[in-house]
Amino acid sequence: MKRVLSVLLSAVIAAASLTGCGTGTQNQVGSSQPASSVTAEFTVDKIGVTYVKSPLNVPSIVEKEKGIFTEAFAEYSLPVEYSNLTAGPEQTQALASGDIQFLYAVGATSVILSASNGADIKILNTYSRSPEAFRLFAGKDSAISSAADLKGKKIAGPKGTILHELMVSYLATAGLTEKDVEFLSMTIPDSQAALAGGTMDCALLAGPVAYNMEKDGYQVVTTGKDLVDATIVVATSQSFYDKNPLLVKRFMEAQDQIQTYIEENPEEILEIAAKETELDISAVKEMYPMYDFSTKITEADITSMKNTERFMKENGMIENDVDIDSLILKIE
User: Fold this and answer.
1) Of residues 40 and 252, more confidently modeled
2) Alpha helix ranges (H) inside 198-298
């Protein structure tokens, strides 16, 4: 009889142990169970993140240098893969396809354009605001000095971005529209090369490229000041959040770690940025004050994005209305 009871007791203990393994996986950051048991609950086997270092995206530069995202997702055995997609339309397409899970620095203009086209895209928080870092350049000896002078001119720049919005806003100050110029969609490096090569009258540039062009004697026709708020945001999709809420929350916690590191190491982070952008440290120190990298979405940010949405609709950049309030992801 004792032998039978002993066998039954062993079986109960074994079953309880197996049950514990099955229910021990919790969607909580800092859980003590093995990462492999957590990973099985996710719908991805990697974390795709865009790496955009221009205009002067210090948070991205510091994050990659310190491996903050890599460490954050290591506990779930999820490798972090960086994508160098920088054009807004390419970024939002990669998010829609599932190749990328987080757009870490994408223009609000691009997000609104994507949402207007029916894409599943949501804003997590803000990345930066830097209107003075976005600029329209003309040649060294150009006679262009006002918006009116742009009529009939060839302008290069990335379509569907803050720079595109800057151009249209500036043209509007002289009663002109995009139809009054010859706008060619190009990446920032290609736009720079086209202006330097003389095939374009003007180029829309930002960040280190803009800094170097100004130092080389190219004329700054206008900056984004008083024309655009240049709101850059962080985005994901509603479907990804619905299926992987823990990963989204872990990403945002990692963002807080980045902010803390930047605040506590002001000199080091500028040196890291200078090395990555190949700028002199003095140039980085000159440019850095143009940027506000706080991540909290403010009422001013929401108002700015609503103004941008209205502007894009009025200027034919989007066809369908976008509700900015519903575009912001609701974290539960």
Assistant:
1) 252
2) 207-215, 238-243, 245-264, 266-277, 281-287
